[in-house]
Write a structure and sequence with these properties.
Elements: E1 2-4, E2 18-20, E3 27-29, E4 33-38, E5 43-48, E6 51-57, E7 66-70, E8 100-104, E9 129-139, E10 142-150, E11 156-169, E12 172-183, E13 187-189, E14 195-200, E15 213-216, E16 222-225, E17 236-239, E18 255-262, E19 265-272, E20 283-286, E21 291-295, H1 299-302, E22 311-313, E23 318-329, H2 335-346
Antiparallel strand pairs: 1-4, 2-3, 4-5, 5-6, 6-7, 8-14, 9-10, 10-11, 11-12, 12-23, 13-22, 14-21, 15-16, 17-18, 18-19, 19-23, 20-21
């Protein structure tokens, strides 16, 4: 393993810097972001003040690069363990839901979203794969990567260049993800339910459920989600427009927070949209069983046909998707604090 240590405030100096906490409004020392480039295991560990925040994983176990796991300042993992490190009592549905990712369910007719190790060989021709190409930089708390969205017959469709900016302010860890997608040929991304920035959350942050459910993907494959023991399950969605719970699914909002209790601490994960994104404000594909996703491109599905986007890029054209993820623990993160972060992110 090669350890690369880079300070978020300065690469070589180690003096303490006081900065205003943009999320919580308090003064804190600027924590130190470091990267450990583990080429043998095909991942980059991101640590804050020496403690793991997340890892950029491109080892091929999933057909796209992911951030996994995602850990709060106090050491609580907010992402599901399955399929890599299953934990007791968690769900084992949707094996393509792993960590934090970005892809889509219909790119030139190929399904990038539902692809996983569980797809039978004879069905692989229906699915696309995102291949990590190279790490372009690890500097000042920012990891920059390049990836290719490729068809099963090895046709390159999209070149992705993504910057992940990591930092911590008080009890909030922050990921600003900026993904530039450049079409390597004409690309059509028809309205589809399965998209686009997604996370699969730990069991504790699911919404309590008293009935089983079945979910169908774009190919008609059905996943059954069983009723599990709801002990300790207390998650809830809170949207920028005031909606809560299951009512958030299929609505447009500037941001959505998923909040619950883990080991007696209030934990939340908030995804913030950006005004310059295609389809702003995004629709939310936010399910009670733990899928937390922003989908700006599935408009006809979520609006029941009242709207349609059917986004396209001509060869050589680019578009940028920007998202902020707040991982907060120890207290409730207020609407005012999230609105403040939204405003800062959109400046």
């Amino acid at each position: 393993m090669i350890l690369i240590v880079l300070s978020m405030s300065c690469k070589e100096k180690k003096e303490t810097v006081e900065s205003e906490n943009a999320v919580e409004g308090e003064l804190t020392q600027s924590p130190r972001v470091t990267f450990a480039d583990d080429t043998a295991n095909r991942k980059v560990d991101i640590k804050i003040d020496g403690e793991l925040f997340t890892s950029y994983v491109y080892d091929g176990q999933t057909p796209k690069p992911i951030l996994y796991p995602i850990v709060t300042k106090s050491g609580k993992t907010v992402t599901r363990g399955f399929p890599f490190a299953p934990r007791p009592h968690e769900r084992v549905d949707h094996p393509h839901h792993a960590g934090l990712w970005l892809n889509y369910g219909d790119v030139n007719g190929l399904d990038f979203w539902n692809n996983s190790y569980a797809i039978p060989t004879e069905e692989k021709h229906k699915y696309g794969t995102i291949y990590h190409q190279e790490i372009l930089g690890m500097d000042e708390g920012v990891l920059t990567i390049k990836a290719i969205w490729r068809s099963p017959d090895n046709i390159d469709l999209i070149e992705e260049t993504t910057q992940f900016a990591f930092r911590q302010e008080g009890s909030t860890r922050i990921i600003d993800r900026t993904a530039t997608l450049r079409a390597l040929q004409d690309v059509s991304m028809k309205d589809n339910k399965e998209g686009m920035l997604g996370m699969r959350m730990t069991r504790e942050l699911e919404l309590p459920s008293d009935k089983p459910a079945e979910y169908t993907d774009a190919e008609g494959n059905v996943t059954k989600v069983k009723v599990l023991n709801n002990e300790g399950i207390n998650g809830n969605y809170y949207a920028s427009d005031g909606l809560t719970g299951a009512d958030v699914w299929g609505t447009r909002n500037r941001w959505v927070k998923l909040e619950g209790t883990m080991e007696a601490d209030t934990i939340s994960v908030t995804i913030i949209d950006h005004e310059k994104n295609v389809g702003y404000p995004t629709y939310w594909h936010a399910r009670g069983y733990g899928l937390f996703a922003a989908n700006p491109l599935g408009q006809s599905v979520f609006s029941e046909g009242k709207e349609a986007l059917n986004f396209k890029l001509a060869e050589g054209e680019s578009t940028v998707f920007r998202y902020r993820i707040l991982v907060h623990d120890g207290s409730e993160l207020s609407k005012e604090a999230i609105d403040k972060s939204f405003t800062e992110f959109n400046q």
